[in-house]
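Practice set, problem 2.
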Amino acid sequence: MREVIYYATMSLDGYLADAQGSTAWMHGAANEDYGFAEFYRGVSGLLLGRKTYEQMLDTGDFFPYADKSVSVFSSNTNLKRAAENVEIISDTAPEVFVARLKLQDADAGPLWLGGGAQLASTLLAAGLVDELQLFVQPILLGAGLPLARGPELRKQGLELQECMKKPGGFVKLRYRTVKSWRSDI
């Protein structure tokens, strides 16, 4: 079965974007990719929410993920497709679509849940996220879009797999989700 990896950068206080929805505060050390190139080579596709996808489109004419399958979840069926590999998913619940994807082509690499706190929360609540790889940037935003949110999100146990200091004061955290949560974790 294919895995879903939630791979994201967040502020120290747990936000993916600031109160205005901007990620302009994100930056890294010069000439440092923090292992992204290796991670990206290993994934077979991307899962994106509409807002994250639209932010990517707003950055210019170049779509950086034209070599992978990209599933964008949106009720807007007229959303612009940045490349032929982009599929707009509007006719089914994200958790149903992703559950089917996980069962298809077991030899394919994992799926990268690349953005959208709402999408991430839905997939976490459905038990479809297998791993979280989080890069914590040393900045406090005070408000913004949290890593996960919503009434459907339930208590989720996580098992720490890796904690690594990175250049620029970043910390990489890698967690596996625990399928049956226990209070003694």
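Problem 2, part (b): a different protein.
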Amino acid sequence: MKLLLDLLVPGIIAGVSCYGMAKKVDVYSALLQGAAKGLEILWKILPALVTLLTVVAMLRASGALELLARVLAPVMNLLGIPPETVALMLVRPISGSAALGVGSELITTYGPDSLVGRTAAVMLGSTETTFYTIAVYFGAAGIKKTRYAVPAALCADLAGFFFASLTVRLFFGAG
């Protein structure tokens, strides 16, 4: 089984390369174009990512996130959501990359098998970068007024955060 898993990624790469050659595609040129586009995307999102991660770090260093977590702790505990995930809940609707950074920090700090680490991982997988998604889809459709889409999407995010925490507690216990 381990051998199969070890060969999975090289097998996919070899399979895609063979398929491309069979279709008479210059695979190396296509790889270079894809890498260049990936770097262009990185160049575009890097400032926003660095800014959001810096803001989260500043809020954390200033104690503002800890204060917010303490203020919201009674409500969060009532809902069964670890208060330590407040930063993730604030950042996730805005930026997936920044949320991944915050989630990684939570998992590193509390451990991957902790209630906080597991909840953060499930939250990352069960919620959306709301504002980005709305901007992309509404922009593509030419819709200028979002009307109730933003509040509805944020309610869906809150439901996702709640049910992520509930699912972790149901499957793994209270911690």
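Answer key, part (b): The two ends are 31 Å apart (CA to CA). The chain has eight helices and no strands.
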